[in-house]
Structure to design on (350 residues):
């Protein structure tokens, strides 16, 4: 789920404050925050034993407990072991409602008299939490919300204010929104490290500190184009779109690296800079177009699918397609242009 509010008691158990917890949940629903799940509850029957009447009628507590367990089919007297099977042995009466068990049952006291269960036990009804989730920080009740990424802070502030107002509960937040932000930060750090390593590798390959910058110049341009495409198509910057950008960057800068390498080799063979750029561009044209078309066309079918998982595939596809289109144009035109502007006054490379 995108956002989960984990509501827990402050230095206490959850059960005595179910009514307050329900009121708090109702206030959250009243804040018009969609997709709030209701707290799962279950009805329970509480049997209360009058201890004073147990003493008055001289009824042993163990005898009363045994009679109740028998009527409710909970009187387990042992286990039958047969090879790898363990079968519980239970003494029980007829199939009856709890009220019928209390109304029609009796227990023998120490004077061998039969005392009606209805004189000793009273029945009451109540509600209890159907499920309590336990985590590393203790027990909590999860409430699930589905905000958009830009609504996260507003949801967190409203939920925190509503929960804290009761004075009984504390709240922690988890969900895919927070995990995605963490992963995006980790991807950003890895991308920075990768760019630095790529720069040093290219500097050693080209024997230049300037030419690697021509290749790396393509990264922010392509990423910006991918973000624009995501915005125009109504997609968001998330983990899948970030993965699409990373893959797109790895594909497209390879074209620029190989193109620069061909141009450098031609200059070493004696070609003038304009001739080297023209011949190198012609040699690499088909390879660049083929790489871009295969990557783009492979993603196009994912844009028109509505099956399970398509919502995750579309941001990935849009980011990759948008970046590849811009990256192809940059590799074909911008990189050679910047290369020429830097080296136009130099002669043949020796």
């Amino acid at each position: 789920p995108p956002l989960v509010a984990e509501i827990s008691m402050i230095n206490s158990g959850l059960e005595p404050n179910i009514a307050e917890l329900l009121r708090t949940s109702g206030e959250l629903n009243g804040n018009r925050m969609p997709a709030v799940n209701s707290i799962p509850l279950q009805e329970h029957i509480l049997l209360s034993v009058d201890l004073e009447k147990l003493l008055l009628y001289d009824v042993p507590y163990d005898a009363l407990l045994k009679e109740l367990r028998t009527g409710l089919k909970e009187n387990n007297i042992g286990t039958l072991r047969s090879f790898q099977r363990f079968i519980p042995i239970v003494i029980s009466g007829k199939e009856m409602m709890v009220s019928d068990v209390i109304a029609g049952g009796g227990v023998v006291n120490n004077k061998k008299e039969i005392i009606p269960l209805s004189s000793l036990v009273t029945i009451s009804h109540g509600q209890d939490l159907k499920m309590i989730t336990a985590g590393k920080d203790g027990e909590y009740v999860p409430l699930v919300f589905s905000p958009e990424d830009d609504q996260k802070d507003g949801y967190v502030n409203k939920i925190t204010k509503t929960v804290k107002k009761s004075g009984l509960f504390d709240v922690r937040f988890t969900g895919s929104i927070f995990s995605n932000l963490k992963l995006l930060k980790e991807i950003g750090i890895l991308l920075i490290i990768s760019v630095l390593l790529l720069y040093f590798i290219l500097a050693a390959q080209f024997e230049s500190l300037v030419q690697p910058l021509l290749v790396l110049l393509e990264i922010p341009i392509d990423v910006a184009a991918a973000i624009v495409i995501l915005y125009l198509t109504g997609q968001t910057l998330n983990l899948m779109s970030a993965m699409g950008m990373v893959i797109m960057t790895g594909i497209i800068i390879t074209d620029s690296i190989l193109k620069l390498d061909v141009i450098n080799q031609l200059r070493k063979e004696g070609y003038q800079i304009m001739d080297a750029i023209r011949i190198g561009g012609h040699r690499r044209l088909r390879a660049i177009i083929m790489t871009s078309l295969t990557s783009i066309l492979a993603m196009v079918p994912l844009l028109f699918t509505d099956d399970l998982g398509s919502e995750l595939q579309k941001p990935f596809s849009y980011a990759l397609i948008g970046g590849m289109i811009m990256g192809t144009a940059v590799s074909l035109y911008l990189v050679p242009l910047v290369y020429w502007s830097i080296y136009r006054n130099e002669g043949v490379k020796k």
